[in-house]
Specification:
The complex is a heterodimer of chains A (485) and B (495). With 485 residues, chain A is α+β, with helices and mostly antiparallel strands. Chain A has helices spanning 62-74, 172-189, 229-248, 294-302, 308-319, 323-329, 333-343, 348-366, 377-388, 394-407, 411-418, 426-439, 441-448, 454-465, 472-483, and strands at residues 5-7, 10-23, 82-83, 86-89, 99-102, 112-117, 123-135, 139-141, 150-152, 159-165, 201-210, 221-226, 256-261, 266-272, 282-283, 290-291. Chain A has 15 helices and 16 strands. In chain B, 38% of the residues lie in helices and 13% in strands. The radius of gyration of chain B is 21 Å and the shape is globular. An eleven-stranded mixed beta sheet of chain B has the order 1-3-2-4-6-5-10-11-9-7-8, sandwiched between helices. Classes of the chains: A alpha+beta (485), B alpha/beta (495).
């Protein structure tokens, strides 16, 4: 089902391409030895190279190159053994050298793709045009003083990967799904933490609209620096709406750079094409062309972790879980790892059930993440083991899990402490049932008269009498036997 | 006092080792010479006598123990384009203000490690942009040479004009220079001294203020090639902090002096017979060929067909890079700031006040050739031609070992004869620019005087990283030319 916006002249299709700036996970900056760590007191992670001092020269950080190659491999992209760094020239106070070192003509990564899963269960392939390495700029701080601005160069020179998509995205949902999938891949490979709040992933959104069936693209606008997936989706919607109104009023959309104001829910013009900078790109003469060996790429490829798509398929096959369960378990590598630890040595489908249900609920309730889960994978596996070997039933297990979250005790310790061991003694079950049946002789008559539904009532009463510890199968079996007497 | 200024760097080194003189004596004599003569020459921007004396005392201590590096106790001058830790570095520009780097350039660090004594920072054209040392914000440098028939102030050449004048006048035993399109070789020729522009990548650019990064190369300037060889051996070497520095062993250059030129094939590029070349320069060139032939070399005519494009493509490539390299001088983090109500205003005011006219002219040209719509026609085409120029040299070197040419199209001119047309000024670099564009090493040695008594130099151009052959051939010319003339203003002569 295609996404369409209905205007006064009929339906419109939207065309979206995304440029994602992903901060590379690395110890040091792209061209200097200064720390690339987020935060820190202003101007404490700055080398003389970052600050553009006279005579300072950039030296490429090989680890950042490796991260870009790994990412390229994760996007099933062409790895360019020859690439080159260019200077992008413009003046700004947080750009100390007056140019950003980027890769313009020869990026390190060429065409690739991202497979995105949509809500209706379908899958779409979004093309990746290129990925290149570049430096981040510093930060201008305007709100500390009425007349002066301050500059923090901690971020200046940190490595970014700019990942450019093809204009293949046709709905806000697809844009959101693409970003989530991209973030998932980056996190899996460990090349970007994908933290949009800290700005380690930001998106520029190119939007245009056209009538369904048109083959040419109409003029696009670029919405700069959108910093959450939700805002990207909102920005696309309002910008498309704006452009449709312009076209339908007989106007033309001008190519320009815009800003998204999420408070007012609108985009605003930042600068028109005429005001666009002339960046005067040219090869950075301080750096040699970047030439890498295929053997090195192969080495990095061999060391790459299992990627989300492959993992999802494997979990389905190996553990017999559904596609839905598998894709939820694979959202984060840590969750999938946790699941596999639980599932090895437990009922794998039961494990999926419990993780997606009570376990995630417990994480949400306690505000914890999988990394600092109050219950370890081994602990959860033990709990599930107690269900499988009929030590406890499922209902009691929920209670035990809650206790585990609260106390940190092991499942078996809790079962012992609280005396929750399931009653499998048929004599005890039988006597409990006989008491219930005796106390409810009217209902027994009704049941025997054909009111089958009352069976559940007897089960409930029995379990209640046994404080939930009755083995459900034995209770059922004994009830049936005694009711047919 | 008379003897001390007759030392060359090599003979001073030997005398120091033999303890015939002390480093303090040697340094004091040079500080004294600077005080006496440099008011007129203006070859220094910043003098560091206290630091020099302290270094000299340390040198004497090392020497007395039989220790000390190859340059222990040798007084040198440093072109003020090299950043020196704790010593103001200006690039001869107002825009750097009183900038004092907290770091040392690799080249000067190498010299210090070998025991050199720095007497101060030498004048140059602003940001090394000029061929006459007339663009310095600290005033022009006057050449120590005079014409026989006039008292006109001559230019020392540029951009390493301060280095050339100080060496020629005996204020220092040697100096560092930088050469982007001829900035070591042309001033060396103008002042009757020797200078080497090594292969691009031989000396680290780390800590040297950039003019045009793909061309800039540091090199030595001294009274003769032996001194240059000693200095170059110290300055050169791989530096992981400069990605364009080349990891190849540094030879013992001084040993190359004795190699001789027997059997050496010397190429004469026919395209260097440029139109309007003076008979004097032509004669000097012929003389150079004769000297080398007499020393056992074979003279061969070669062709470098793209020579005529050297100058225009150089001024595109170099200025494009310069326009970007000089963007960091914006008044924000260091140097002079002129306040203004807006950020763009601050840039405009600071850069308008800080840069001189020639630098502004070059930034504008460089910005233009990179601009959208002009990039392909200028920058990109210049890069292609640059490749062709390099291929010319590679092809010539299949057949010959070195090339011999004049260094400059004339001898030094007077300060007030400076051409009003900037392009006319750029023509000074016509013979030196092609080697820079190719990245190959080249040197200039003094070969004679022109009719008015002003020095002229010959240039030798060599294969990549083969400075040794250049030095051998250059030394053959030195021996044959026996250039022992001294400038009018010299530390050893009463001025």
């Amino acid at each position: 089902m295609s996404y369409r916006i209905t205007g006064s002249t009929g339906e419109w299709e939207i065309v979206v391409g995304l440029e994602v700036h992903a901060q590379v996970v690395s110890e040091a900056k792209l061209f200097s030895g200064a720390s690339a760590e987020y935060g820190g007191e202003p101007n404490t992670h700055v080398s003389l190279v970052d600050a553009g001092f006279p005579g300072m020269l950039p030296v490429l950080n090989r680890e950042c190159v490796a991260q870009a190659v790994r990412t390229g491999l994760g996007l099933e992209a062409e790895i360019n053994l020859f690439s080159r760094f260019d200077r992008k020239n413009y003046f700004y106070a947080d750009l100390p050298t007056g140019y950003q070192i980027s890769q313009f003509a020869h990026p390190i990564i060429g065409k690739g793709k991202v497979l995105v899963d949509l809500a209706d269960g379908s899958t779409r392939e979004i093309g990746v045009t290129r990925l290149h390495l570049e430096q981040d700029a510093g930060k201008s701080i305007h709100d500390q003083d009425p007349t002066r601005s301050f500059i923090d160069l901690n971020r200046a020179g940190v490595a970014l990967m700019e990942i450019v998509s093809e204009p293949d995205i046709r709905s806000p949902e697809e844009a959101g799904a693409y970003l989530r999938k991209l973030r998932q891949i980056l996190r899996y490979i460990g090349t970007c933490d994908g933290n949009m709040e800290e700005g380690s992933m930001r998106a520029d959104v190119n939007v245009s609209v056209r009538k369904p069936g048109e083959t040419e693209y109409r003029t696009r606008c670029e919405i700069k620096n959108v910093n959450s997936i939700r805002f990207v989706m909102m920005a696309i919607e309002v910008e498309a709406q704006r452009q449709i109104e312009v076209w339908e009023a007989g106007g033309t959309v001008d190519q320009e750079t815009r800003l998204f104001d999420h408070v007012r829910g609108e985009t605003r013009s930042l600068r028109s094409k005429e005001d666009a900078h002339d960046y005067r790109y040219f090869p950075d003469p301080d750096l040699l062309p970047l030439v890498i060996e295929q053997a090195w790429v192969d080495e990095l490829k061999a060391a790459l972790p299992e990627l989300p798509e492959a993992k999802r398929v494997r979990l389905e096959q190996e553990y017999g879980v559904s596609r839905y369960e598998s894709s939820v378990l694979c959202v984060e590598q840590a969750i999938a790892d946790f699941y596999e630890t639980v599932a090895r040595g437990a009922d794998a489908r039961l494990a999926a059930n419990w993780m997606l249900g009570d376990f995630f609920a417990a994480l949400n309730r306690t505000g914890r993440s999988i990394e600092d889960s109050p219950v370890s994978a081994e602990g959860l596996r033990e709990l599930l083991g107690l269900i499988s070997d009929s030590t406890i039933n499922g209902k009691i297990a929920k209670e035990v899990l809650e206790d585990m979250v609260e106390t940190g005790d092991s499942a078996s310790a809790i079962v012992e402490r609280k005396g929750l061991r399931q009653v499998t003694d048929t004599g005890a079950i039988e006597s409990a049932i006989r008491e219930i049946l005796a106390a409810n002789s009217d209902k027994v008559e009704e049941y025997k008269g054909g009111k089958d539904k009352l069976f559940g009532f007897f089960v409930g009463q029995t379990m209640k009498a046994m404080k939930g510890k009755g083995n459900p199968a034995l209770v059922n079996e004994t009830l049936k036997k005694l009711l047919s007497e | 006092m008379s003897g001390i200024h007759d030392f060359t760097l090599a003979s001073a080194r030997d005398a120091l080792k033999a303890r015939k003189i002390s480093a303090v004596e040697l340094t004091d004599a040079h500080i004294d010479a600077i005080e006496r003569l440099d008011g007129q020459l203006n070859s220094f921007i910043t003098r560091t006598p206290d630091q020099a004396r302290e270094a000299a005392r340390a040198s004497d201590e090392a020497l007395s123990k039989g220790e000390g590096g190859s340059l222990c106790g040798i007084p040198l001058g440093i072109k003020d384009l090299f950043c020196t830790n704790g010593v103001r570095t200006t690039a001869a520009s107002k825009i750097l203000g009183n900038f004092v780097p907290p770091y040392e350039s690799t080249v000067t660090a190498n010299l210090l490690k070998d025991g050199a004594v720095f007497l101060g920072k030498l004048n140059l054209d602003e940001f090394a942009m000029g061929s006459a040392n007339l663009t310095s914000a600290f005033g022009p440098v006057e050449s120590p040479w005079k014409r026989r028939d006039s008292d006109a102030k001559l230019v020392p050449g540029g951009s390493s004009g301060g280095s050339a004048a100080a060496v020629a006048a005996g204020l220092v035993l040697g100096a560092t220079g930088t050469d982007t399109g001829g900035s070591i070789r042309q001033p060396a020729a103008f002042t009757g001294i020797a200078g080497i522009k090594p292969t691009y990548g031989r000396c680290s650019r780390f800590g040297t203020i950039a003019f045009a990064s793909s061309l800039d190369q540091a090199g030595p300037m001294a009274r003769n090639l032996q001194d240059c060889a000693i200095l170059l051996e110290s300055m050169a070497g791989f530096d992981p902090r400069d990605s364009t520095s080349v990891d190849t062993p540094v030879p013992h250059y001084e040993a190359a002096l004795k190699r001789g030129v027997k059997g050496l094939r010397v190429g004469i590029p026919k395209e260097y017979h440029v139109e309007g070349m003076s008979a004097e320069i032509e004669a000097l060139w012929q003389q150079g060929m004769t000297w080398l032939r007499d020393a056992g070399a074979e003279i061969v005519e070669v062709s470098l067909p793209h020579t005529k494009y050297g100058l225009p493509t150089y001024y595109i490539a170099a200025l494009a890079e310069a326009s970007s390299n000089l963007a960091r001088y914006d008044g924000v983090r260091f140097g002079e700031r002129v306040s203004a109500p807006t950020l763009d205003g601050l840039y405009e005011a600071s850069r308008a006040a800080g840069f001189g006219d020639e630098v502004k002219r070059r930034i504008l040209i460089g910005t233009h050739v990179l601009s959208s719509g002009y990039y392909d026609a200028y920058y990109l085409r210049a890069q292609k031609v640059r490749t062709l120029i390099q291929q010319d040299f590679l092809k010539a070197f299949e057949n010959v070992d070195v090339l011999l040419t004049p260094t400059a199209p004339s001898g030094a001119f007077a300060q007030d004869e400076k051409p009003s047309d900037p392009v006319q000024m750029y023509l000074n670099d016509v013979f030196t620019v092609p080697a820079s564009m190719a990245g190959v090493p080249a040197l200039s040695v003094p070969a004679g005087l022109d009719a008015r008594g002003v020095p002229l130099g010959l240039q030798l151009i060599g294969r990549f990283f083969d400075e040794e052959t250049l030095i051998a051939a250059g030394h053959a010319i030195e021996q044959a030319a026996a250039f022992h003339h001294r400038p009018t203003i010299h530390a050893g002569v009463s001025a």
